[in-house]
């Protein structure tokens, strides 16, 4: 039996960062990953002469050397920033909503964003300024919370970040109502909601405002070698720090201590038993509690079952034999909705028949050399807010993929005026089945547990201590306390890694 201070299960964004934090804290660490490469969703793949990004549309809160965001500061601390070649995304987004006849393209930069919004919606300036003031206070409160490992002093929070506490239990729509933001400005501002996969009646204002602020204030970044470049840099750093990494290795069982029920070891798929008292799991609690442990505290089972799975992913990747100008693809980042009413739109996203939402990216607009000269790449993502793909019969699977892929191309051409058909050289489609098989996420969810009013960012941060009923077991990644997305998964890896170092030190 080999012995480690800690074992990290899964080399996704959360697991990779947790492993580095553990090693930096002096813990002898093993990282196991069931695939033959790191990153989980954070990877790339090749088809013909195209290297497609598998998931990342844009990395939020990285910023530049002279306008560093929290992710850059985290990466500096991990020692990986300079291992990656970055490029900046040119503009925030173009949102098109059919019902409202809305077509707006928004820039990065808080002032530029507010000015552009005033152009689209005269009179919106005061409410949009208030939004960004509030969002900045939220960012500072979160930075304080993470600096004290989540053990916030409530009096300090109230005196320094009163508005953060005040907004704590309200949804996006409730707070924007109270800011008296004109409807059209809200429709434009709320365009990012599909990145968090919950509609704006349910989505915590704190969570949404924090994300929008980070995007608009710092801009967004992209590694030139796709997200896989980040995953490789993090893995290299783990090895530099003396960590062990095993690919093609699945953790199949967690052993528990008979006395306290806490972690005693990990069993790998080849039967190897690893002795450890600490595990950071970068996979779903549903899997850990449902499949990997014999005895699970009742409270953990109830908490996992009470949570709601987030959207199930579907992505179409196109390699085109003409460049973006020739095709009429003007922007990097598109959100195409039937309606800007996120609650109604969320409802339509439950079924394959009705869902026509897409978040579409043309990486060439940020990094023209990402594909051969005279070509470009597009990737189109949508989410299903129910397990409708689970109802597709095996014999209808390919037909259903074609149905959705065709709808996506038609919709993009109709809404943006671009011409894609006749130029498709490569096409690849990932459905919820692909995501379930690739990363092991139930039903193919790509954002962990959905952010809901009782289970959003704030409650999860506040309940961090409570959410830890099995001694020695912590979670990192999309299901954890910072919820889903690249930055959030990195931050939860950072928090869980550092907390585990604290646990180990306390044990002596
Ligand atoms: C199409 C798509 C587009 C997206 N776009 C964006 C975006 O633009 N911006 C953004 O911020 N986020 C985006 N996301 C979300 C983002 O990719 C995820 O939130 C994030 O990558 C999740 O990281 P994670 O740490 O949870 O790990 P995951 O990526 O879920 O990886 C978990 C890892 O654990 C491994 N594993 C699981 N079980 C075991 C086991 N038992 N033993 C060993 N290994 C195991 C898996 O193989 C996997 O490698 C997108 C996701 C998708 C799919």
Task: Give a verbal description of the structure.
The structure is a single chain. The protein is an alpha/beta fold and 508 residues long. It has 3 domains: 2-47 and 56-85 and 224-307 and 449-507, 3-Layer(bba) Sandwich (FAD/NAD(P)-binding domain); 105-218, no CATH class; 311-446. It has 19 helices and 23 strands. The chain has a 7-stranded mixed β-sheet with strand order 11-10-19-20-21-18-22, with helices on both faces. The chain has a 5-stranded parallel β-sheet with strand order 13-3-2-17-23, covered by helices on one side. β14 and β15 (263-268) form a beta hairpin. The longest helix has 23 residues, at 125-147. The two termini are 22 Å apart. It binds flavin-adenine dinucleotide.
Mean pLDDT: 95
Report the C-alpha radius of gyration, rounded.
Answer: 22 Å
Distance between the termini: 22 Å
Helix content: 25-40%
Q: Tally of extended strands?
A: 23
Using brief descriptors, characterize the structure shown.
508 residues, alpha/beta, FAD/NAD(P)-binding domain, 3 domains, seven-stranded mixed sheet, five-stranded parallel sheet, 23 strands, globular, binds flavin-adenine dinucleotide
Write the layout of secondary structure elements.
Elements: E1 2-3, E2 6-9, H1 13-24, E3 29-32, E4 44-47, E5 50-53, E6 59-60, E7 63-64, E8 67-68, H2 70-78, E9 86-88, E10 93-97, E11 102-106, H3 110-120, H4 125-147, H5 154-160, H6 162-167, H7 172-178, H8 183-189, H9 193-196, H10 205-218, E12 220-223, H11 226-240, E13 244-246, E14 251-256, E15 263-268, E16 273-275, E17 279-281, H12 285-292, H13 298-306, E18 312-320, H14 324-327, E19 333-337, H15 342-348, E20 358-361, E21 376-384, H16 397-416, E22 424-430, H17 432-439, H18 457-462, E23 473-475, H19 486-507
The structure holds flavin-adenine dinucleotide.
Residues 9-15, 32-35, 40-42, 55-58, 60, 250-251, 282-283, 313, 315, 381, 435, 439-440, 446-447, 477-478, 484-487, 489 line the site of flavin-adenine dinucleotide.
């Amino acid at each position: 039996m080999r012995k480690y201070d800690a074992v990290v299960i899964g080399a996704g964004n959360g697991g990779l960062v947790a492993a580095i934090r553990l090693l930096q804290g002096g813990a002898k660490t093993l990282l196991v990953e069931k695939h033959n490469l790191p990153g989980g969703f954070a990877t790339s793949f090749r088809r013909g002469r195209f290297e497609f990004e598998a998931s990342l549309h844009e990395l939020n809160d990285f910023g530049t050397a002279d306008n560093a965001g929290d992710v850059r500061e985290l990466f500096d601390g991990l020692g990986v920033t300079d291992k990656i070649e970055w490029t900046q995304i040119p503009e925030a987004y173009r949102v098109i909503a059919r019902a409202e006849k809305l077509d707006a393209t928004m820039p990065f930069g808080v002032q530029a964003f507010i000015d552009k919004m005033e152009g689209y919606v005269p009179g919106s300036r005061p409410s949009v300024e208030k939004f960004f003031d509030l969002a900045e206070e939220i960012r500072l409160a979160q930075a304080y919370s993470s600096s004290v490992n989540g053990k916030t002093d409530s009096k300090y929070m109230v005196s320094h970040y009163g508005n953060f506490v005040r907004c704590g239990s309200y949804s996006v729509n409730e707070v924007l109502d109270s800011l008296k933001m004109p409807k059209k400005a809200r429709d434009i501002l709320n365009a990012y909601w599909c990145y968090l996969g919950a509609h704006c009646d349910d989505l915590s204002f704190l969570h949404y405002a924090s994300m929008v602020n980070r995007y608009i204030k710092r801009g967004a970044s992209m590694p030139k070698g796709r997200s896989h470049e980040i995953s490789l840099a993090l893995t290299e750093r783990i090895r530099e720090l003396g960590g062990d990494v095993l690919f093609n290795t699945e953790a199949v069982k967690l052993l528990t201590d008979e006395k306290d029920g806490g972690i005693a070891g990990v069993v790998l798929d080849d039967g190897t038993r690893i002795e450890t008292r600490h595990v950071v799991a970068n996979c779903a609690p549903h899997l850990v509690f449902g499949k990997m442990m014999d005895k699970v505290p009742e409270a953990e089972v109830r908490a996992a079952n009470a949570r709601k799975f987030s959207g199930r992913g579907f992505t179409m990747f196109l390699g085109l034999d003409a460049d973006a100008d020739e095709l009429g693809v003007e922007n990097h980042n598109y959100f195409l909705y039937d309606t800007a009413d996120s609650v109604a739109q969320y409802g339509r996203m439950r079924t394959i028949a009705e869902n026509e939402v897409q978040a579409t990216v043309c990486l060439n607009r940020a990094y023209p050399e990402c594909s051969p000269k005279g070509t470009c790449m597009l990737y189109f993502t949508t989410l299903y807010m129910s397990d409708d793909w689970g109802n597709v019969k095996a014999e209808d699977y390919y037909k259903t993929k074609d149905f959705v892929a065709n709808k996506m191309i038609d919709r993009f051409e109709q809404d943006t005026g671009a011409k894609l058909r006749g130029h498709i050289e490569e096409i690849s489609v990932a459905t919820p089945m692909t995501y379930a098989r690739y990363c092991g996420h139930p039903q193919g969810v790509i954002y962990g547990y959905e952010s809901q009013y009782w289970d959003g960012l704030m409650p999860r941060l506040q309940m961090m201590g409570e959410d830890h009923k099995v001694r020695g077991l912590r979670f990192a990644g999309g299901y954890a306390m910072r919820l889903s997305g690249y930055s959030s998964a990195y931050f939860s890896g950072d928090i869980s890694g550092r907390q585990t170092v604290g646990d180990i030190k306390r044990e002596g």
